[in-house]
Amino acid sequence: MTLQQMKYLLEVVRCGSISEAAKELFISQPSLSAAVREVEKEMNIEIFHRTPKGMQLTTDGTELLSFVRPVVEQSNLLDQRYKDRGPAKMLCSVSTQHYSFAVDAFVSLISRLNIPEYEFALRETQTAKIIEDVAEFRSEIGLLYLSSFNEKVILKRLREGQLEFIPLFTAKPHVFIAVNHPLAAKERVTMDDLEPYPILSFEQGECNSVYYSEELMSQVPHSKHIHVSDRATLFNLVIGLGGYTISSGVLSSDLNGERIISRPLECDEEMWIGYIKHEKSLLGSFATQYIEELKTVIQKQGLRA
């Protein structure tokens, strides 16, 4: 297998389809398909499942990519070190639940590094999609949380994808409400306090199980429930409808403004927020630095590891 073929495979994984990868590589689709088939024949394995939703890695393909990715990265570093050319373009993809601290760390790191060329992806997406992205090598890391309620289900799914969970910090659940909300004057709130108001949660698509919910207490019945797909809509509804959502309590005034506040929720649950990575992957330099930046942002918030 050639280095060029390795790069082709990584691009197919990143794009999720042969046609999109061919466009990015500036080659024809038949040429790229032939290159993939050549590698499969040489290695005597099937690397991708061809599905209506695109190209998905097989078990053998996942193992092969765990070797391919570090080889390509080391090749790029060698070129950068010994060839007379500018720095290689830095690449990294991160998938995450809807956390403002994840965006804060991303902004802080990119601003501080002052990188001349890069191509990054920061995907705020559904829990199952985060796991799938990392398992299929579309993202190097994924950010999500575990709790006593969802731990068994999520960890089982991670084991199936050969993924590991590394904790970053522990948080007590908080509710996000508008600054003029009737409960804003309370130091702490209970689920009984919240009952008259609509709860807002991020929809989870096809995997709409309570175990994949981004919000704690998802197993508790709610008389008023609104599902949303993005953070801006959620906060608009928090302000406009007097709704609330349950999260870690980490707010960013730069991203969310001054009209949203956080109040502790009285319950016995905790959120163990961390990142997932593939067991066989070696993280790239940006992903490694991003994790360190996350820890810095978390420490500034006074949260405990």
Highlighted features:
305 residues; alpha/beta; Arc Repressor Mutant, subunit A; D-Maltodextrin-Binding Protein, domain 2; five-stranded mixed beta sheet; three-stranded antiparallel beta sheet; 11 helices; 12 strands; 22% strand; elongated
Write the layout of secondary structure elements.
Blueprint: H1 3-15, H2 18-25, H3 29-43, E1 48-51, E2 54-57, H4 59-82, E3 90-96, H5 100-113, E4 118-124, H6 127-135, E5 141-146, H7 151-160, E6 163-171, E7 174-178, H8 191-194, E8 199-202, E9 225-228, H9 231-241, E10 245-247, H10 253-256, E11 260-264, E12 271-278, H11 285-300
Parallel strand pairs: 3-4, 3-5, 8-9
Antiparallel strand pairs: 1-2, 5-12, 6-12, 7-10, 7-11
Structure, described:
By secondary structure, the protein is α/β, with parallel strands linked by helices. Among the domains are: 1-82, Arc Repressor Mutant, subunit A (Orthogonal Bundle), CATH 1.10.10.10; 170-270, Periplasmic binding protein-like II (D-Maltodextrin-Binding Protein, domain 2), CATH 3.40.190. It is built from eleven helices and twelve strands. It has helices at residues 3-15, 18-25, 29-43, 59-82, 100-113, 127-135, 151-160, 191-194, 231-241, 253-256, 285-300; strands at 48-51, 54-57, 90-96, 118-124, 141-146, 163-171, 174-178, 199-202, 225-228, 245-247, 260-264, 271-278. It has a five-stranded mixed sheet with strand order 4-3-5-12-6, with helices on both faces. 33% of the residues are buried. The mean pLDDT is 87.
